[in-house]
Design a protein that fits this description.
Elements: H1 5-22, H2 24-38, H3 45-58, H4 62-74, H5 79-111
Length: about 120
């Protein structure tokens, strides 16, 4: 579990930038896939980020948890919506998802704090 999600995500972002510079075609493809999947259609951006967050818990991806908590917050997700998302992730992912759901709460509490 991360102790400082903001710093952790900055480090991951720096590594992703390196990958974009050194392997641009793959990263362009990944970016295009992400943009297509996140484009608001029948579901809005917040709903899609909450779905991605639930999947992040179910597949136990800390990096994904951090980025999707941050994005869900940017799209106006509330603690209640995040908690309901965690309920679905736990339902679908069973025991391991319960453990990773605690990571989302930690990330939420750190990333939702107003900047000083």
């Amino acid at each position: 579990m991360q102790s400082d999600w903001g710093t952790y995500l900055a480090g991951v972002s720096a590594r992703m930038k390196e990958m974009r510079n050194e392997h641009p075609e793959v990263m362009k493809g990944f970016s295009a896939l992400a943009q297509a999947a996140l484009k608001p259609q029948a579901l809005d951006a917040k709903a899609k980020e909450l779905i991605a967050l639930g999947i992040s818990v179910a597949v136990r991806c800390d990096d994904c948890i951090g980025f999707h908590v941050k994005a869900a917050l940017a799209h106006g997700a509330t603690r209640e919506e995040i908690m309901e998302t965690l309920g679905m992730a736990i339902y679908m992912g069973a025991g391991p998802s319960v453990m990773y759901a605690s990571h989302v709460l930690d990330a939420y509490e750190q990333l939702a704090k107003p900047k000083a």
